């Protein structure tokens, strides 16, 4: 690697340029007859060539060998990684679901990031380029000489337990808990542990679109996730030693592997606006009421993958960050509700304001479309009586939500084999008694 440290370029959706060696980018054009340093030019498209300029995403990579130098892909298996959600292997339920923390791998087995992917829920499928999947990752070893790229969609990765050391074709990212990263469709990457510590977290995969910052409307030009806080790695390449590398891909839901005699992280320079990025959730500029009422959680949207219907997301990534609660004459925790969208939640650290127990870091919950949910009975009683002084809510905590307009199915693993579904979750609300008084 030409540099061991992590260096980043600031900004969201910028047209970046980055050179690990001076003047490695061709001057003034993309495809000169011969590239500087005898590199190969390769374009990676993230949108159709013909996508309008406002949506067009592509990057030019200048690399030691083009990606095409590999043996044919052979099918391989990954039974717990699911991308098609229509069939019998998936189970639908309108019941409220909650999961205790998902397991880390046993010390007796070595599992890397890709091997440790397990799908919990999803909708649609990649071949028609519409839908999403929610995965858990849990691993205790490096990917070593293997790299993965997702042919099916973009992956928003939410580390919960320990940091990820991610090498990508565009450079290196260190992503800690309370940070997130997005690795788009087609980008090759490899995940290593930091100081050998096991890792666990959540992934939101979207098949058809890329994540954007939400529109701000009347909020104005600033606030929520500010563009300059998104970080994209600088170009960094591995010196080549002709040892074999395995290239893995999920292609239309199935896993394939190919071999090549060179490291795929051989990009000496790149430019463009299709590149991975990370974001520190602590930088989120929280906007909320300073008068009354509980405001809808869309105010906490970090990133959105829009559908073609205005204002309706295939998936929103929403967080519940530390903040001041000041609302007067207001029941401050989340309200009781039935949502036309489906809400998968996870907890990165701490407690969640809507629940007094049972929702733990590394676990999850799913309240599907039109499924009633809200504060548990204890939270309801406490918040109904609480003195309404300004208070910090959710100090040292971070919960998040993957919210989708699609109807989610759960996988066999998610509902059964993971063994983490809390059968008594419904009891959280059973003590909400009739308090109705006419006098
Ligand atoms: O259900 C949840 O806990 C998420 C949520 C939080 C909130 O403040 C308002 C609505 C909502 O769905
Ligand atoms: Fe909700």
From TrEMBL:
InterPro entries: HgmA_C, HgmA_N, Homogentis_dOase, RmlC-like_jellyroll, RmlC_Cupin_sf
EC id: 1.13.11.5
Domain Homogentisate 1,2-dioxygenase N-terminal: 8-281
Entry keywords, A to Z: Dioxygenase, Iron, Metal-binding, Oxidoreductase, Phenylalanine catabolism, Tyrosine catabolism
Pathway assignment: Amino-acid degradation; L-phenylalanine degradation; acetoacetate and fumarate from L-phenylalanine: step 4/6
Cofactor section: Fe cation
CDD domains assigned: cupin_HGO_N
GO MF annotations in UniProt: homogentisate 1,2-dioxygenase activity; metal ion binding
CC annotations in GO: cytoplasm
Domain of life: Eukaryota
Family: Belongs to the homogentisate dioxygenase family.
Designated name of the protein: homogentisate 1,2-dioxygenase
Lineage: Eukaryota, Fungi, Fungi incertae sedis, Mucoromycota, Mucoromycotina
GN (gene name): ABSGL_08952.1 scaffold 10588
């Amino acid at each position: 690697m030409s540099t061991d440290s992590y260096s980043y370029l600031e900004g969201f959706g910028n047209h970046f340029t980055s050179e690990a060696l001076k003047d490695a980018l061709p001057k003034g054009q993309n495809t000169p007859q011969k590239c500087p340093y005898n590199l190969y030019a390769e374009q990676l498209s993230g949108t159709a060539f013909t996508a309008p300029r406002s949506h067009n995403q592509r990057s030019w990579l200048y690399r030691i060998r083009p990606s095409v130098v590999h043996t044919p892909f052979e099918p391989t298996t990954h039974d717990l990684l699911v991308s098609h959600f229509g069939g019998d292997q998936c189970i639908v339920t309108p019941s409220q679901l909650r999961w205790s923390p998902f397991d880390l791998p046993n010390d007796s087995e070595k599992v890397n990031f890709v091997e440790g992917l397990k799908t919990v829920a999803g909708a649609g499928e990649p071949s028609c380029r519409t839908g999403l999947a929610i995965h858990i990752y849990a691993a205790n070893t490096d990917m070593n000489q293997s790299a993965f790229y997702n042919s099916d969609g973009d992956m928003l990765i939410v580390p919960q337990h320990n940091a990820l050391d991610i090498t990508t074709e565009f450079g290196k990212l260190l992503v800690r808990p309370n940070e997130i990263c997005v690795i788009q469709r087609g980008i090759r990457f490899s995940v290593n542990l930091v100081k050998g510590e096991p890792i666990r977290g959540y992934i939101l995969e979207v098949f058809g679109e890329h994540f954007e910052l939400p529109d701000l409307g009347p909020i104005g030009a600033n606030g929520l996730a500010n563009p300059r806080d998104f970080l994209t790695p600088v170009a960094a390449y591995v010196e080549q030693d002709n040892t074999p590398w395995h290239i893995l891909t999920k292609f239309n839901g199935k896993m394939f592997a190919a071999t090549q005699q060179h490291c795929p992280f051989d990009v000496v320079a790149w430019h463009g606006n299709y590149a991975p990025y990370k974001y520190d959730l602590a930088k989120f500029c929280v906007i909320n009421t300073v008068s009354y009422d509980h405001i809808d959680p869309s105010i906490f949207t970090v990133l959105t993958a829009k559908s073609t219907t205005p204002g309706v997301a295939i998936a929103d990534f929403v967080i519940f960050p530390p903040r001041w609660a000041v609302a007067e004459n207001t029941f401050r925790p989340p309200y009781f509700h039935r949502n036309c969208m489906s809400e998968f939640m996870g907890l990165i650290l701490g407690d969640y304001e809507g629940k007094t127990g049972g929702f733990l870091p590394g676990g999850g919950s799913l309240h599907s479309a039109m499924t009633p949910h809200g504060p548990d009975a204890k939270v309801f009683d406490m918040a109904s009586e609480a003195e309404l002084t300004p208070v910090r809510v959710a100090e040292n905590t971070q919960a998040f939500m993957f919210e989708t307009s699609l109807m989610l199915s759960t996988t066999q693993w998610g509902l059964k084999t993971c063994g983490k579904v809390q059968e008594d979750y419904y009891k959280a609300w059973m003590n909400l008694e009739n308090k109705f008084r006419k006098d």
